[in-house]
Structures are given as structure tokens and as C-alpha cells.
Amino acid sequence: MNQQLQQLFDHLDLENLDDGLFQTRHKSEGWRQIFGGQVLAQALLSASRTVDDARRPHSLHAYFLRPGDKAHPILFKVENLRDGKSFCTRRVTAVQHGAAILTLDASFQIPEPGLSHQEPMPEVPPPEACLTRAQLADQLRESLGPELHAAFTRPFAIDLRHTVVENMMQPEARPPRRCVWMRVAADLPEDYALHTHMLAYASDMTLLDTSLLPHAMSLFSPQLQIASLDHAMWFHRPFRMDEWLLYVQDSPSASAARGFSRGNIYRQNGELVVSVAQEGLIRVHAKK
């Protein structure tokens, strides 16, 4: 197991302090602040630990309220809102330095049969035909420079492969749509809750960036101030995170210093398993 994958497992290792009270055991990750997908996954995990195994998450709605401090533990407080015969609901507040940094409402359901239809998966190159992060970094070596090249060629817990090559250092304006293959680069146990938490973690990757595509910008554009504001997920069908999933993303709108992005996540066999929506802060500052 590589160091980054072990770090991902560490992020999902929470200490149970009391009934409905959990705390991180390990140092958080992120670039300038804690990666939003980490806190999202930990909040969902906290809620799941107060629900019996027969119930699976079917939706979550979260707000990112403050930047997280990577050097400080996160406390998760779980409130039991309802326990019904089929559904139950939990509210989670993630706290640092006495202030909430994220709130999450999650609903769980006992699986049952019902009507079924879905949006079809688009035709894209298979993951084996797409560049790995390391291969992409080698192709863009001159644009990235030594420091970023080293960062992008190190092992990652989540194997991400864009179906279309993008140069994030020299972005070009194009329609706000992208498709990304992703999976955890290891064999995982059968524990379905683990797969949902890891997908919550990965679902925050590349989604908000999609709203930048029409404007020839990327996360590395120096004039940008960008941060996730909220995040919602709907779990439709079972999946595994150690199998390839296609993350189909688009951004219908950006306005008022906010970008809105959506995502559909498919198994490789074409089954739609999860839908995602996110709005983020996108401020463009004058170049100095």
C-alpha cells in the first residue's frame, strides 16, 4: 500500500469520543487548507457510525462554512433527527477552534425494489486508453516545472484519468464539460460503507474546476480565489471504489462570483450509481 493510500485510510479512521461524537486521529491534508472531500467523507462516516448496517446512505447535503486548519483535529458532532422504519436522518457538524467548518445532513434507507431508469453513459475512451497523472505530467513537463512535475508524478490514492488531455498551466477556453475515470488504486474489502465514504472523498475532485473551463482558467490561475461552498450527493445504485467509475461533469452556470457544477458517476458497465452537485466561490482578482 503506497503512502497516499494509507493516508486516505487514516483520514477515515475516527476516534469515538462519546455517543455521536467523533474526532480525527491523523493530520489532515490539503493544499492551502483542508481538502473539502476529506471533511465531507469524515462527516458521512460519522453519521454512518450511528446507523445500523442495514441502512445505506441515499443522499447527503453539506455546506462548507469555513476553511479547515490542517494542523488541528476536527470534531464531528452527530445529531439524530429521525429513525423511521425505512429511512433515518442524521445532522453532522464539523468543528475546529470552537467554530463550525462544515454541516452535513445525510439520509439513510433500507434497500428496496422500485421503478428504475437512468441517463445513459456517454461514449468515451476506456480508462486503459487515457493518460495516468504521471504520464500527463511527463507530457506537460515544460509547462509544469520541476516542483509541480514531482508533485503530479508521485503515487496517488485515487487514480484519476481525464478522457481529454488538459494543460492546467496553459488552459484554453472550451465548453464546461469533462469526463474523468477514477478508482482507488488498491483492492478494498466488501464493506459498502467504506466505498461510499471514499467516493464522497473523490467526488470533490475536479468538479468545481469544470466551471472554469469556458474562461481559460484553472486552479493554478494566480488571480483566482476558489473554494467549495456546498456539496450534494444522491446514491442510486451499489458500486465499488476499486473498480473504474466514470465521472461525467458539466457546469450549467457561473455568475455572481459563484460557479455551479454537476456530475453523474457511472460504473464501467454503464450503470448510473451516483449524482453530484456543487456550487463554489470563484473570485477573479486583478493581476498584480
What's the helix and strand layout?
Elements (H helix, E strand, L loop, with lengths): L2 H9 L2 E5 L2 E4 L11 H13 L7 E9 L10 E9 L3 E10 L2 E11 L23 H7 L1 H13 L4 E5 L14 E8 L7 H11 L21 E12 L9 E11 L2 E10 L4 E13 L4
Antiparallel strand pairs: 1-2, 2-4, 3-6, 3-9, 4-5, 5-6, 7-8, 8-10, 9-12, 10-11, 11-12
Helix pairs in contact: 2-5, 3-4
Would you summarize the structure shown here?
Helix content is 18%, strand content 37%. By secondary structure, the chain is an alpha+beta fold. It folds into 2 domains: 1-111, Hotdog Thioesterase (Thiol Ester Dehydrase, Chain A, Roll), CATH 3.10.129.10; 127-288, Thiol Ester Dehydrase, Chain A, CATH 3.10.129.
Describe this protein's structure:
β5 and β6 form a beta hairpin. This protein has 288 residues and is α+β, with helices and mostly antiparallel strands. Strands 1-2-4-5-6-3-9-12-11-10-8-7 form a twelve-stranded antiparallel sheet. It contains five helices and twelve strands. The mean pLDDT is 91. It folds into two domains: 1-111, Roll (Thiol Ester Dehydrase, Chain A), CATH 3.10.129; 127-288, Thiol Ester Dehydrase, Chain A. It has helices at 3-11, 36-48, 133-139, 141-153, 192-202, and strands at residues 14-18, 21-24, 56-64, 75-83, 87-96, 99-109, 158-162, 177-184, 224-235, 245-255, 258-267, 272-284.
